[in-house]
Write a structure and sequence with these properties.
- With 294 residues, the chain is α/β, with parallel strands linked by helices.
- It has helices spanning 39-45, 69-80, 95-103, 110-118, 120-128, 194-200, 220-225, 229-239, 258-267, and strands at 2-7, 21-25, 30-35, 55-57, 88-91, 141-144, 150-152, 157-162, 173-179, 182-186, 205-209, 243-247, 273-276, 282-283.
- The strands form two sheets. Strands 6-5-4-3-2-1-14 form a seven-stranded mixed beta sheet.
């Protein structure tokens, strides 16, 4: 299993940190977890093409977790030229509606898709890319999942858990992927909750949002529905997580001195391997070891 961070930031615009996106590769599948603004660009920087993505899991429909879904679907279809299977998409309620509003006949890209499938100019481009006529429109295979469900994709499984964040307006999920004897857990956006502890229990890698420095929450609701750094450290300790990746990092502590303080304070609680996430970071499934000195 190979794990790379594509976007480790928040909704706040940043040239350093794109919004949420995480890539997990198994033997023959490339799986995205969330697809926030800028994560597609990072995916290209990582050398991965849209046509290589086989599966997408969306934790919730805040725009910083799904805005690049449009780009992924449209580019994957256009460049794939009918030669690759449809994208498998798993997400909460309204994922199917969102998809239909993007690529359906009455969707926002309906006229674009008509032009690309009906005009001789565009048909020639499609054929030049290896496609055949008539050209079918994109139809991602969308499955809306529910808490407690396990998605069996053959090569890997993904367990779904509801976590506290933007309910009751948005369903918010965390996912646990098991493949090749290893486990990857992604919180989406979540406050400290038992469901997250249970899902992450004894996992190899936990990528978890860390929205603020503990003690500085804007109000009680903010504190309940988002993770502070000390609460996250306690959660990882209780769940016996092997490798903890801090992500969804706000500017509040994303500066020299403060980053080191956060790591130091979390390390006093959580004794496993701690990573302060960065865009394009590759996270090891096993214990990180120093490289040879040269």
């Amino acid at each position: 299993m190979r794990i790379r961070l594509l976007g480790t930031g928040t909704p706040s615009p940043s040239l350093r940190r794109m919004s949420a996106g995480y890539l997990v590769e198994t033997a023959t599948r490339k799986i995205l977890f969330d697809c926030g603004p800028g994560s597609y660009h990072r995916m290209m920087e990582a050398g991965v093409k849209a046509t290589e993505i086989t599966d997408l899991f969306l934790t919730h429909l805040h725009y910083d977790h799904c805005l690049d879904y449009v780009r992924l679907v449209m580019t994957r279809w256009d460049q794939g030229a009918g030669r690759i299977p449809e994208l498998n998409v798993y997400g909460p309620r309204y994922t199917a509606r969102m998809t239909e509003l993007i690529v359906g006949d009455e969707g926002i890209f309906g006229p674009d898709l008509r032009a690309r499938t009906e005009l001789p100019m565009s048909q020639a481009v499609h054929v030049a890319r290896g496609g055949t006529l008539p050209r079918a429109k994109p139809r991602p295979v969308v499955r809306e999942v529910r808490p407690g469900e396990t998605v069996d994709c053959g090569e890997f499984t993904v367990q779904v858990a509801a976590v506290l964040h933007a309910q009751p307006i948005l369903d918010c999920y965390a996912f646990r992927l098991e493949a090749e004897g290893a486990s990857f857990v992604y919180s989406g956006d979540a406050g400290p909750c038992k469901a997250m502890i249970d899902l992450a229990r004894n996992c190899d890698v936990l990528v978890h949002m860390c929205q603020y420095m503990s003690g500085t929450a804007l109000n009680r609701e903010f504190e309940k529905r988002n993770a502070g750094h000390l609460e996250l450290a306690r959660l990882a300790r209780e769940a016996s997580v092997r490798n903890l990746v801090v992500s969804h990092i706000a500017l509040q502590f994303d500066r020299p001195g403060m980053r080191e303080r956060v790591i130091r304070e979390m390390s006093q609680i959580y004794e496993g391997n701690l990573f302060l996430g960065e865009d394009l970071m590759e996270v090891p499934v096993d214990v990180p070891r120093p490289m040879k000195l040269d």
